[in-house]
């Protein structure tokens, strides 16, 4: 049981994913084929392998705005009902093949209207695809449950409209609401009417905060907007003074040693068990973290913040959820208990009724990890 979990074993583990973008997870070959079908001529290359390499290279600039530019190509081929159904179907299949048993996949309906679809038609197409993908996965013996998060863009003015759609479709597959896009200059408080509406409707929402901007973005998301979760939240580390290396150099990754001084905001986030949707590889690519080795997730896990591990954009970062966990195992020497802890955190934080969260934790996550841990030499 002391052996490090291998990537192959991690792929077999039942995992939960809260932060995955639909337009950031397309298969390169699908992009090429959809470009041909829709007449889009803007791709940098039509070779799927070269295209995958281009997305990864373009996403490693260390700047969030440059990272976001890559979505121009994926969104461009997602403007018809057929393309949305296909992309959503393949998303569910790909996640299930990686061992994900629960996922929340987010997308911005307002970005898929150029082909003449209405917002309702976009949502219904994506939901059809996610349902079809889950059914296909079940037939392959890799069951998955997928909920959608409807995202509003920070720089636009449609957040209230998207929030109303999230409420309207919450009983047919939409799990919640999100806002995304460049943080600097676009504070979440610009969308207060949407968040106030969601709270009145007892709806769930997360906010991208603390990725491209610092503590003020996190503070506004929580104290003004009332976010249930923080998308990324990496910069909460700016409110923590880490004393562990000098005071307790032998403290393991699971040790709550008291060797850190938390500011008021960081203390609030930990005390309130506010989930942090961290995406290690993406956070490095966008410049939110300097490296996997220096990613705040190590400190935050040690201090028992409600940390979850996510993919963000599987295409741009050339990653899977299993690969994200494998990197953390390599860098922080995590074992099966640590990986189970991250996944239980994710399920505790999912936008599902309590009994359904508990059913997945006790029926899939814990038994699956127990089998893998005891099977290890």
TrEMBL record:
Reaction(s) catalysed (UniProt annotation): adenosine + H2O + H(+) = inosine + NH4(+); 2'-deoxyadenosine + H2O + H(+) = 2'-deoxyinosine + NH4(+)
Active site: 211
Sites marked Important for catalytic activity: 232
Boundaries of every Adenosine deaminase domain copy: 14-362
InterPro entries, alphabetized: A_deaminase, A_deaminase_dom, Ado/ade_deaminase, Metal_Hydrolase
Protein residues bound to Zn(2+): 19, 21, 208, 312
Family: Belongs to the metallo-dependent hydrolases superfamily. Adenosine and AMP deaminases family. Adenosine deaminase subfamily.
Reported cofactor(s): Zn(2+)
GN (gene name): add
Keywords, sorted A to Z: Hydrolase, Metal-binding, Nucleotide metabolism, Zinc
TM annotation in the entry: none
Protein name: Adenosine deaminase
Co-factor binding details: Binds 1 zinc ion per subunit.
UniProt KW Cytoplasm keyword: no
């Amino acid at each position: 049981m002391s052996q490090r979990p291998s990537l192959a074993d991690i792929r077999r583990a039942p995992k939960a994913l809260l932060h995955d973008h639909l337009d950031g997870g397309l298969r390169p070959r699908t992009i090429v084929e959809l470009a041909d079908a829709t007449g889009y001529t803007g791709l940098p290359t039509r070779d799927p392998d070269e295209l995958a390499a281009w997305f990864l290279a373009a996403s490693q600039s260390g700047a969030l705005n440059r990272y976001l530019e890559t979505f121009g190509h994926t969104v461009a081929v997602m403007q018809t009902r057929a393309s949305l159904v296909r992309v959503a179907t393949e998303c569910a299949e790909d996640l299930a093949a990686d061992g994900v048993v629960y996922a929340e996949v987010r997308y911005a309906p307002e970005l898929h209207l150029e082909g003449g679809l209405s917002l309702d038609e976009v949502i219904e197409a994506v939901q059809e695809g996610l349902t079809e993908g889950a059914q296909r996965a079940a037939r392959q013996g890799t069951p998955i449950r997928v909920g959608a998060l409807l995202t509003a863009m920070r720089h636009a003015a449609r957040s209230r409209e998207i929030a109303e759609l999230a409420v309207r479709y919450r009983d047919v597959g939409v799990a919640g609401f999100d806002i995304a896009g460049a943080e600097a200059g676009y504070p979440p408080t610009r969308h207060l009417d949407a968040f106030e509406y969601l709270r009145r409707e007892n709806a769930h929402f997360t906010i991208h905060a603390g990725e491209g901007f610092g503590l003020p973005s996190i503070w506004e998301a929580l104290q003004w907007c009332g976010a249930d979760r923080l998308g990324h939240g990496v910069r909460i580390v700016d409110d923590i003074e880490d004393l562990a290396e000098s005071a307790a150099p032998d403290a393991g990754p699971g040790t709550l040693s008291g060797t850190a001084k938390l500011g008021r905001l960081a203390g609030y986030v930990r005390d309130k068990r506010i989930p942090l949707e961290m995406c290690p590889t993406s956070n490095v690519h966008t410049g939110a973290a300097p490296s996997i080795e220096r990613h705040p997730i190590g400190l935050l896990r040690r201090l028992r913040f409600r940390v979850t591990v996510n993919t963000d954009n599987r295409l741009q970062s050339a990653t899977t959820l299993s690969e994200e966990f494998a990197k953390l195992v390599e860098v922080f020497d995590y074992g099966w208990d640590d990986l189970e802890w991250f996944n239980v955190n994710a399920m505790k934080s999912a936008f599902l009724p309590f009994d359904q969260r508990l059913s997945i934790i006790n029926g899939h996550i814990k038994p699956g990890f127990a089998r893998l841990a005891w099977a290890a030499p």
